[in-house]
Amino acid sequence: MEAADPGGGALLTVGRVGRAHGLDGSFHVTQPRTRLLEGRDSVIVEGRDVAIVRRAGTDARPIFRLAGVDSREAVDALRGTDLWVRREEAPPLGEDEWYAEDLVGCRVVDGDREVGEVTQMLAYPSCELLEVPRAADPGKPPLLIPLISDAVRTVDLDARRIDVDLRFMGEEEV
Asked: Contact, 128 vs 121, CB < 8 A?
């Protein structure tokens, strides 16, 4: 999810305040985006920069304590709140890499055939998946399109268009 920075730039979500860990204001970071959290000494919480004063846990299950959050009650008040970083501070992306925020809302097509629109990107152990409700049959479960070259022909962010190969996914009829 992308939001606007009070300073005018774009923000990228890097996790969410989870349950408290101990009594000192430490908490589990849920839905962590490891790459975006690497080397960070602060995050944006509720529109303001807040220093990370403690880091523990693992990359997959980080535990943070933020400046000014010094009790279990303070964590409970923030639980579920998104943690953000400025987009311009994010590490550069490689070729054929995108932030989920860039893909959400893109039209998905198979050649000239309309498939749907990306609602979210899901992180699975083997690869990321694009969730795309079916434009032609909203009653069916959404398509889960793996972000691999066999399934995704092209991604054109300027045109907000992703061309996929439904035949590869066994989805010739959408």
From this structure: yes
For the segment(s) 100-164, the CATH number from 3.40.50.300, 3.50.30.20, 2.30.30.240, 4.10.640.10 is: 2.30.30.240
The token duo for 136 is 């032609």
Its CATH class, for the domain covering 2-89, is mainly beta
The C-alpha atoms of residue 73 and residue 166 are separated, in whole angstroms, by: 49
Location of each CATH 2.30.30.240 domain in the chain: 100-164
Residues 123-169: tens digit of each pLDDT: 787 888 999 998 888 888 999 999 999 999 999 999 999 999 999 98
> How many residues does the structure list for the chain?
174
CB under 8 Å to 89, separation ≥6 — which residues? Answer: none
- Tell me which amino acid residue 49 is: D
